[in-house]
Amino acid sequence: MTQPDFDRIVASSRRTDPHSIRTRVEALEKLLERLFVVPGINQPVGLDAILSLIPGVGTVSAAALGSYIIWEARNLGLPKWKMARMSLNTGFDMLLGAIPFVGAVPDFFFRSNSRNLGIIRRHLDKHHPRNDFPS
Question: What is the rounded CA–CA span in Å between residue 12 and residue 43?
Fold first, then answer.
């Protein structure tokens, strides 16, 4: 993340318009799921998988960070069934991550935060198209 990107995210941190929420959620998803690419296997890894290596505390911390995405979805007014689906994604990821040491492996294949971002993006694209956002 470059300095201008970081400044843009910080500037939008207190705003509740759809564009600001989208910016924050996309940045958090990138941090949790695609922080860097592992050389050799060309697989993106984020804080979610790294935290899963810490038994107990890491899994709960990753789920708490993922829950922030759900909270932002609530601020956007997503329907309850979409919020429930997002909660199930995060809960399932937490259950998989609760398996000591092996729990980090499913984080490579089941990316709950990316799935939840997809739900939010589809909602925003339908109800708040990008061309409505200021540049």
Answer: 30
Q: Where are the domains of the chain?
A: 18-132
Within 8 A by CB and 6+ apart from 30, the residues are: 1, 46
Is-contact 74 116, C-beta < 8 A?
Answer: no
pLDDT bracket for residue 123 (50, 70, 90): very high
CB contact set of 58 (below 8 Å; sequence gap of 6+) = 50, 51, 52, 97
pTM: 0.82
Give the residue carrying structure tokens 């564009």: 19
- Give the DSSP H or E segment for 109: none
Q: Place 113 in a pLDDT band, splitting at 50, 70 and 90.
A: very high
